[in-house]
Amino acid sequence: MKKMSDVTLTIDGKQIKVPSGTTVMQAAEKAGLSIPALCYDPELSIAGSCRMCVVEIDGMNNLPTSCSTVATEGMVVQTKSKPVIEARKMVLELYLADHPLDCMTCQKNGNCLLQKYAYEYQVKDTPFKENKHRYPIEDNNPFIVRDMDKCINCGKCIRVCDEVQGRNVLQYAYRGYDTKVTTAMDVPLIESECVFCGSCVAVCPTGALLEKKMIGKGQSWEVEKVKTTCPFCGVGCNFDLNVRDGKVIGVTSNPESEVNGRHLCVKGRFGTDYIHHPERITTPLIKKEGVFVEASWDEALDLVSKKFLAMKKEYGNESIGALSSARCTNEENYVMQKFVRAVIGNNNIDHCART
Amino acid sequence: MTNSFKDIEHTNLIFLIGSNPTEAHPILGVKMKKAIRNGAKLIVADPRRTEMADLADIWLPLKPGTDIPLLNGIMHIILKEGLWDKEFVENRTENLEELKKTVEAYPPEKVAEITGIHVELLYQAARLYASTKDASISYTLGITEHVTGTDNVINIANLAMLTGHLGRENVGVNPLRGQNNVQGACDVGGLPDVFPGYQKVFVPEIKEKFTKAWGVELSGKLGLTIPQMFDQAIEGTIKGMYIMGEDPLLSDPDASHVERGLNSLEFLVVQDLFMTETAKLADVFLPASSFAEKDGTFTNSERRVQRVRKAIDSIGESKPDWMIISELSTRMGYEMNYTHPSKIFEEIAKLTPIYAGIDYERLEKKSLQWPCPTKDHPGTPILHVGAFTKGKGTFKGVDHKPPAEVPDEEYPFYLSTGRRLYHYNVTTQYSESLTEYHPDELAMIHPKDAEKIQLSKEDKLKVTSRRGEVVTAIEITDRVAEGTIWMSFHHKDVPTNVLTNGAFDPITLTGEYKVAAVKIEKYRAE
Ligand code: SF4
Ligand code: SF4
Ligand code: SF4
What we know:
The complex is a heterodimer of chains A (355) and B (526).
Chain A: E1 6-11, E2 14-19, H1 24-30, E3 56-57, E4 76-78, H2 82-97, H3 113-120, E5 144-146, H4 156-164, E6 170-173, E7 180-183, H5 199-203, E8 209-211, E9 224-229, E10 238-244, E11 247-252, H6 266-270, E12 285-288, E13 291-294, H7 297-315, E14 320-324, H8 330-344, E15 349-351
Chain B: H1 5-10, E1 13-17, H2 21-24, H3 26-37, E2 41-45, H4 51-55, E3 58-60, H5 67-80, H6 86-92, E4 93-94, H7 96-104, H8 108-115, H9 119-131, E5 135-139, H10 141-144, H11 149-162, E6 172-175, H12 182-187, E7 194-195, E8 199-200, H13 204-214, H14 226-235, E9 240-244, H15 248-251, H16 255-264, E10 267-272, E11 284-287, E12 296-299, E13 304-308, H17 321-331, H18 341-351, H19 360-365, E14 368-369, E15 393-394, E16 413-418, H20 432-437, E17 442-445, H21 447-452, E18 460-464, E19 469-476, E20 484-488, E21 501-504, E22 511-512, E23 516-522
Parallel strand pairs in B: 1-2, 1-5, 2-3, 4-15, 5-6, 9-10, 10-11, 16-20, 17-19
Antiparallel strand pairs in B: 7-8, 12-13, 13-14, 16-23, 17-20, 18-19, 18-23, 21-22
Helix pairs in contact in B: 5-7, 5-8, 5-9, 5-11, 14-16
The structure holds iron/sulfur cluster (SF4) (3 copies).
């Protein structure tokens, strides 16, 4: 059978064959060319609104957005021509006209798409001297800070909330220049149906949506990211622990996560702050006359070892039982059951969640 | 799970039984919603009107503890109407006659009476599930925490086999594991009857294999389960316990019985991150490191082995659990000299056929789903393809046993318990963000019941069972049925499990968290 119609097109002088239905943006990516975009996200529906991804296509008058233009046979595309560059600069100037430009204290510094493109296209100032919006910062929930002054209305948060999380908390409200992303009735997130999954934060290209607890804790290049598995439920999402100076400052999505991609729930994304909780017990304790007193590892393990050995001798191997844990690693559970079987000498090993 | 999460995303029908994924397994809830958006049908059997029940094509609000008659009734209809998968049953299963005999006694009218579900809904659910080619069942604690938990699981397998919904893509029977590594803890032998890889302790060749590997004589006698340990502690035969990373006093049913057990011990060692309710009773507390401070692996509900990576050094003097146990073991005269968790994993793989092909190097590139018997095996996303592990799938009819405790004159309400989105057993209590957002336990009560005792939103409710009482803040909502109180068990200030029942599933000995009888009154501070 003949393969369902492939199309061949030329992008920046490069010939490339793609299945029909492929967009110019996807075709370019396949050809190893990256086209800038602010509102486009491969996982979400196409908005075609930011106009950063415009390209020049032979035979077309205006500059079409590559994310929403389907590649056709024989198409000739320019992604870096002069008109394209000019158009993109104009787009960026318009965004910057209504942006705080306080990059040096912004948590998103070094990680912001608007900043990245402004740098790439060297857009420093803007001829559009309109009044900048000034919205109050919303930070009355424990998880997410919304600074709508930094919002570029790309709509990714709206789409991810609806299309991935199935929550539909966010929408566009007001008109024209005053267009703004809001909850229903423009109430704060905490009063909305938001479940604080943070997927909107994960897709936001700017500093408009931020993880509250991470603000001021480290800039992108100071933070080491360590991919790991969520300690909370049996879905087993993966994410990056963000570490600075030996401290976990928060969690960010790792798109390479096999189970969950960039998406997490409130527990995985915001619940790991228990790691550094002040009530963590970090010294061995021995109870003496009813109260715990601090001890060295040597003392504590010595006591446990002597006690268990004495009990084995006095009451027999069957007199001791152990619980391993559905929250510990496989390796730890293995070592625990081996300890019970090989050292204590019985099979009295179980764990709480037998379900 | 017989299948993978991916299959749930692509299935044409999700039958959710006693499961509330949008709260207990949120990212799975997201995947289910995606399937539904793409046209999958949804049947939800749950006494509570959960978020998924709102989305369901068919919601079956059954009375607590009546899952077995519900499924029997559905199978009765499927058999009567000839909707079963004759080819699958013929080729892959045995013992259909026994199942037929059992479900014969569950005509829809009778089932409607026991479960409280309308006959018409029973027909609709049976027809929809049986006639959809790619249909999957997911269930969670709701169903395994009843006294008849094991029977429930068998009955779900009956239904899936009868309709041929096993052994291929986008179908299957999916028990959703509660805590993050329940699957792994079971896989590597954290159970009283099996060595790692579900190899029975009483089979002589297996015992021999482990005796050889570990170089000591081992016991072939079945060990004690948790409830048995506490019973025997009270009787005085268990004298010492070593508890790692669990808080049975908060999370196990019938807390006062557990407490009596713990208090009867001569010596208790608790190894944990925090001073848990259980730890307060310990003689020695050993400070463990959190998941961020260690390397290792977790195995998720779909049997996927994934890496846990050390991000920071152990806090204070705390140590990873594996290290503490190894040092203790060495002190007690049995050397354990693991230098790194990867070495422990190598040993697991050597002794555990389902993990044999997995190592850290492979996991660095990609997670793997067991069984993965060899280094070049790609892992197993779907179980029972072509044949069941044990050859033919055996039908086994199961009969309805009412819950061990049902409401009566003195205790007229059902108490039902579960998990909430913002909390997860115990650790989340130490997350400042999560606690700030959802600080209090809120018991759910139906508006009519609240009205009867003149309870308003700000009032507190006293809930009493035969075993104890708690006082709790409330949420008045018609998501629970009249005559039912719903609570979670995450909060140490409202230890819900002093109320729950210590009756156990005779086979798995899982506690009956889900159903207990209680009475309620408006709380008045004295
Ligand atoms: S946190 Fe989640 S639910 Fe809340 S607005 Fe963002 S995407 Fe929607
Ligand atoms: S908040 Fe962020 S994601 Fe949402 S529209 Fe604004 S810039 Fe885009
Ligand atoms: S992020 Fe949420 S859904 Fe994912 S594993 Fe963690 S607790 Fe489960």
